[in-house]
Specification:
This protein has three helices and six strands; from the N terminus they run H-H-H-E-E-E-E-E-E. By secondary structure, the chain is of the alpha+beta class. The protein has two domains: 53-96; 97-203, Head domain of nucleotide exchange factor GrpE (Nucleotide Exchange Factor Grpe, Chain A, domain 2), CATH 2.30.22.10. A three-stranded antiparallel beta sheet has the order 1-4-5. A hairpin with a 2-residue loop joins strand 4 (188-190) and strand 5 (193-196). Helix 2 (100-117) runs antiparallel to helix 3 (124-146). The radius of gyration is 54 Å and the shape is rod-shaped. One of its GO terms (molecular function) is unfolded protein binding. InterPro entries: GrpE, GrpE_CC, GrpE_head. Keywords: Chaperone, Cytoplasm, Stress response.
Length: 204
């Protein structure tokens, strides 16, 4: 009985010695395993950081392109709006002053009518002819008036370079300075546009 007890004690002692000898091995293996895991985790973290930086750089690049395209769109939209505005203005002007070319060609004929009507009739036949010419002249002026043509007032008015063209100067004491004393050729205005200024003599 005592022998069995001694054997049991010996076995227990050997078991404890074996466990003590195994513990450092396990500890060393655990340390290596933890180190490997830490290195792997650090590597994964570094990779994730690199990918995140690449993703942020790509996002910034795309945002810059978006800003560039938006600026291009804004400029193109502004250019298109300006172009459309110019086209509308040209269209309105073309409609508003559509008769200008025809009127400009008619003005010399009107001038000739006015010169002829200033003639004194020598006989009844000439008088009737001048009356007929005056009717035609008035009809032409009426037609021009419907298109927005009006003669520019000049005689006795103050000289305005926007409407009058001074070709001579006068020195009349009883007339104020810068007043038109004579009209050589009548001027005309189409709506708000001068198509021919009046040719006048202005007092100094």
């Amino acid at each position: 009985m005592a022998e069995e007890k001694n054997n049991q004690q010996v076995e227990n002692q050997q078991s404890e010695e074996n466990e003590q000898s195994i513990e450092p091995i396990f500890a060393e293996e655990l340390t290596e395993e933890n180190t490997n895991e830490q290195e792997q985790t650090a590597a994964e973290t570094s990779n994730e950081k690199d990918e995140l930086e690449k993703a942020n750089a790509k996002i910034k690049e795309l945002e810059a392109k978006i800003d560039e395209y938006e600026n291009r769109y804004v400029r193109l939209r502004a250019d298109f709006d300006n172009f459309r505005r110019r086209v509308d203005l040209d269209k309105q002007a073309s409609e508003k002053y559509r008769a200008q070319h025809l009127i400009t060609n008619l003005l010399p004929a009107i001038d000739n009518f006015e010169r002829a009507l200033q003639m004194a009739p020598e006989d009844e036949q000439t008088k009737q002819l001048l009356q007929g010419m005056e009717m035609v002249y008035r009809n032409i002026l009426e037609a021009l008036k419907k298109e927005g043509v009006e003669p520019i007032e000049a005689l006795g008015k103050e000289f305005d370079p926007h409407y009058h063209q001074a070709i001579m100067q006068a020195q009349e004491e009883d007339v104020e300075s810068n007043i038109i004393v004579e009209e050589f050729q009548k001027g005309y205005i189409l709506k708000d546009r001068v198509i021919r200024p009046s040719m006048v003599k202005v007092n100094q």
